[in-house]
């Protein structure tokens, strides 16, 4: 098993606050995560759960208005909370890289993809133009782009969405990062193209022994690619554990509810109604007491209004719920 | 009403667009839809699946009368759509679009958004229209107080409910749903899918349900048609098409649908990722450059859409030879 030395990213009690006219919005509330070398961690949740802000906060890319606090935020043993901006700039794009959802908006439309691929490499002083070009061609080939050398002079608009996302992945990998953070990298793509990109990410993660943190709303992706899963709701991680355990025996009613919402060919007979989660996500403005899910939870009880402690077992499965452990188990 | 005719029938429908052209460049023809024939019977849900650019939304626009086919016929309720007036058409077929953020007028409140089709069609008095809007709100699961809300005050799921209410207020027979849940969160998607099922049963609606999500289609549709580059490549009863796909493309689509089962890894995908240029379609079968089961005849000769074992139709030279599990 992986030891402490393999921990690439370690964050304890991350908070992100955004001032709004109505009061302070607590968008991320006490998130603790670790990502290990050679491991894929998926952060899953619905819109507004704070998963994207969490990933931006980890990279130090939050908008200026947002305030970040944490007990610990370390990258490969280095304290990022106290690191100067210059050190963060040196790490970002080099040892920690990020892929965003929309490949069109994160590629510069007026620069060739060759310029964009080599920029980080040159900026981080990894070599000269010649070696940058060679690396770019090699990586484009690696991400499955045929005729890579000829593509360097092309502009983003000349590529399809799937190819653009492959270019973005190649860009992120130019310096051989230890941590790759991917925020909804396939959401804008067709299912067939999505599968190709996920296969590529999984292969590269193994090959380069990176820690891959994948942020997504799609439980299907999580089930197929994740080693570990963190389920977020209303700014908190409500459940975390190995993918097999979280999917087979969820301990938090929100995780269970999410799973019941997905139609599954073969298991959901045509015409049957899907499970739903009634109600809406609570407002995160102002202070919140107790479990954020209690207003929508079929198992809510008086204890839910008190602060809910994180419980866990020896296998690293942790959840934030007061229910008895077997409360959500189902007859198979 | 003609009870014998299907609510929707497409006969050899083509749609071609001229693109480019200028001082030096030759104007070229993009064939978005190339000879599609399909039927939707009363009370039936036909699921239409395919990747972006396969022509499924163009087809929807022709069925809604927003575009005229270049060739072929669209029949609503047995009558050619070209012979129907705008108002007549609006009473037969209505759309629900993907993005509830851009399909609702942000400056109108919910009651006037839902009530607008009634005013356009001159249905009822002011009081009757108000009652009709109130009834629709209840039908789609919105509270009476939402009547005065503006779209910006509603969540994505609530907005999609408003879009559905607007589509149903004239009591159409056919609703064209173009990716109605793709922009929504999974828990909201489940609510909207349940609502569409309820409404279909209560109002006897027929849906043309366009989606790239096969799991969603499987839950809703009685029949499924798969489109690739403007052509229907497979069509048939949903259980058969999704249970035993005969076309390698349908099989590949099915394989790329990721079900939340952690015991399965990422499926192997032997589908080429080279998406063909719709301006220069491949010879023979348009799918052959990506097909894992391709052989010499495929590049030469386009397969016809023929009946296949187990029911339905498929356009593949290998149909009936049971060789497509490969994809």
Automatic annotation (TrEMBL), chain A:
GO terms for molecular function: ATP binding. Residues 9-259 form the ABC transporter domain. It is a peripheral membrane protein. It is found in: Cell inner membrane. Coiled coil: none annotated. Keywords: ATP-binding, Cell membrane, Membrane, Nucleotide-binding, Transport. Belongs to the ABC transporter superfamily. This is ABC transporter ATP-binding protein.
Automatic annotation (TrEMBL), chain B:
PANTHER family: D,D-DIPEPTIDE TRANSPORT ATP-BINDING PROTEIN DDPF-RELATED, TRANSPORT ATP-BINDING PROTEIN. Residues 8-254 form the ABC transporter domain. It comes from the Bacteria. This is ATP-binding cassette domain-containing protein. It is found in: Cell inner membrane. One of its GO terms (molecular function) is ATP binding. InterPro entries: AAA+_ATPase, ABC_transp_ATP-bind, ABC_transporter-like_ATP-bd, ABC_transporter-like_CS, Oligopep_ABC_C, P-loop_NTPase. SUPFAM superfamilies: P-loop containing nucleoside triphosphate hydrolases. It is a peripheral membrane protein. The lineage of its organism: Bacteria, Pseudomonadati, Pseudomonadota, Alphaproteobacteria, Acetobacterales. Belongs to the ABC transporter superfamily. Keywords: ATP-binding, Nucleotide-binding, Transport. Transmembrane segments: none annotated. CDD domains: ABC_NikE_OppD_transporters.
